[in-house]
Design brief:
With 495 residues, the chain is α+β, with helices and mostly antiparallel strands. Helix content is 35%, strand content 22%. It holds the Pfam family FAD_binding_4.
Length: 495
């Protein structure tokens, strides 16, 4: 049996050597084509790209990093990389998705979009044009110079591309729906190298697919976002005493079951710190019509006892800057997963009970990694209505997920790579436990929010078979050779 084993090892080593050779050649070709935009390990710009990932597990080391400065540069890079069908590459916007390989690649080529970070107000304040390397903080800072805003992220250091192509939940989602539905045009580089615009009247099939289809169709280089007038909003973080957990979750449930308030946004989290063995309930809530605050949030925000209350009326840019501080100051390893359900008077408390019962034992197994676990509840946005352009999520315009649905997210944050596999398995276990409870109450919903889905989940399947068929058809039409299916392994794939 020795010879067959040696033969297999030789094949494996040989395939890696060939792959590495192709990547090295591709990096060399990129240097020739884009001489000032390609960086190798040990170069300061290369290192800056790696350390810009907010989650430590995403800090992989590609053979080279490309930093395009224009859509034309992106076109050149894609044309070089697709030749030969051998070089694998990744595309990085803000790098905030924690799944390993989704926005970076080991020993391949990473296209880092951060130099395409321009933000421009256009068309008489109707549109804000945003480069695919921008962070949401950049967008809000520019928009607010004219008292404008857009449907965007609630944490300033989150990147624009992944957030929008995964759907995106904004401060205004209870009123205006998914953030991706605020996109009026995508500028995108196809696998052919062609630069096109996808919108409601041109390449409308691709326009819909990009709203939820992630990185399966090309490299988006610019987003044109619908702008609207907005002033300060009221909101922030409140930390409660441990005894407030059940009253807080009950108040949130009652709010969701009550009269719908389109200006009430945000989420609830219960955090377990293994080192301190403490459970801490937290609300991060916003009211987008501060003159009428607190609206439906009153019953939630009045929950006692409170340890700190950070609710303030402030510009959106201040809220997003505040939310970014923890992400920037303390990079960790992070994994998460999600599932969705219909709201009932008891279901939120039941999910919490299951999580609270098991999470101390789970984190105890990996105490050396100083883990923190979180359980988060949040409402879904409304689907497109009033004849607006469709997205890919499969909700009919007559459905009301913003009123009667929530998703739950389980998160582990920790400091040691040795715990990676264990926490991935724990996420799977928690998703099964949650979904068993949801099935008992007949409230489990198929939908899984892509931006909070784990790599072992299948959010595309959760959109429904009709939507998956549409996405696959669009991928075959605009990328017939499957460059973004085969050479871009990161992200959720259609094939």
């Amino acid at each position: 049996m020795l010879l067959p084993r040696l033969y297999y090892v030789g094949l494996l080593f040989g395939s890696r050597l060939v792959s590495g050779t192709h990547t090295a050649l591709a990096c060399g070709e990129l240097v020739s084509a884009l001489p000032n935009n390609v960086f190798y390990p040990e170069a300061p710009t290369y290192n800056a790209t790696i350390t810009s990932y907010p989650f430590l597990q995403s800090r992989l080391h590609p053979s080279c990093v490309v930093r395009p400065k224009s859509s034309h540069d992106v076109s050149i890079a894609v044309s070089v990389l697709k030749s030969g069908n051998q070089t694998q590459f990744a595309i990085k916007g803000g790098g905030h998705n924690p799944s390993v390989g989704f926005n970076n690649i080991q020993d391949g080529v990473t296209i880092d979009m951060q130099s395409l970070n321009g933000v421009e107000i256009a068309r008489g304040n109707e549109v804000i044009r945003v480069g695919a390397g921008a962070l949401w903080q950049n967008v809000y800072d520019v928009a607010e110079t004219r008292n404008l805003t857009v449907l965007g992220g609630r944490i300033g250091v989150v990147g624009v591309p992944g957030f929008l192509t995964g759907g995106g939940i904004s401060f205004f989602s209870p009123e205006r729906g998914w953030a991706c539905d605020g996109v009026v045009n995508f500028e995108i580089v196809l696998a052919s190298g062609e630069i096109i615009n996808a919108n409601a009247t041109s390449h409308s099939d691709l326009f819909a697919a990009l709203k939820g289809g992630q990185n399966n169709f090309g490299v988006i280089t610019r987003f044109d976002l619908k702008a609207f007038v907005a002033g300060p909003i009221w909101g922030g973080r409140v930390i409660y005493g441990p005894n407030a957990t059940v009253p807080l979750l009950s108040a949130y449930t009652n709010m969701k079951l009550g009269t719908y308030d389109p200006y009430a946004a945000g989420w609830l989290t219960v955090r377990y710190n293994h080192t301190a063995a403490t459970f801490t309930p937290i609300s991060i809530l916003y009211y987008t019509q501060p003159q009428s605050k607190p609206g439906a949030l009153k019953q939630v925000i009045d929950t006692q006892p409170q340890i700190t209350n950070g609710m303030i009326e402030a510009p959106i840019s201040e809220h997003t800057r505040n939310a970014s501080r923890n992400v920037i100051a303390n990079p960790q390893r992070t994994v998460w997963a999600t599932t969705s359900f219909k709201i009932t008077p008891t279901i939120v408390l039941r999910i919490h009970e299951v999580w609270k019962k098991h999470v101390p034992e789970v984190t105890k197994q990996y105490a050396y990694a100083n883990p923190i676990a979180e359980l988060t509840f949040q409402a879904l946005p409304a689907p497109p209505r009033n004849g607006s352009s469709p997205n890919s999520f499969g909700f009919a315009s007559t459905e009301t997920p913003e009123k009667d649905m929530l998703f739950v997210q389980s998160v582990f944050t920790y400091g040691d790579a040795a715990a990676d596999e264990g926490f991935q398995e724990a996420l799977k276990d928690f998703m099964k436990l949650f979904e068993d409870v949801l099935r008992e109450e007949s409230v489990l919903h198929r939908f899984k929010y892509l931006n909070f889905a784990a790599s072992f989940q299948d959010p595309f399947a959760s959109f429904g078979s009709d939507e998956v068929s549409k996405l696959k058809a669009v991928a075959k039409k605009y990328d017939p050779k499957g460059v973004f299916q085969k050479q871009v392994p990161g992200g959720f794939k259609l094939f």
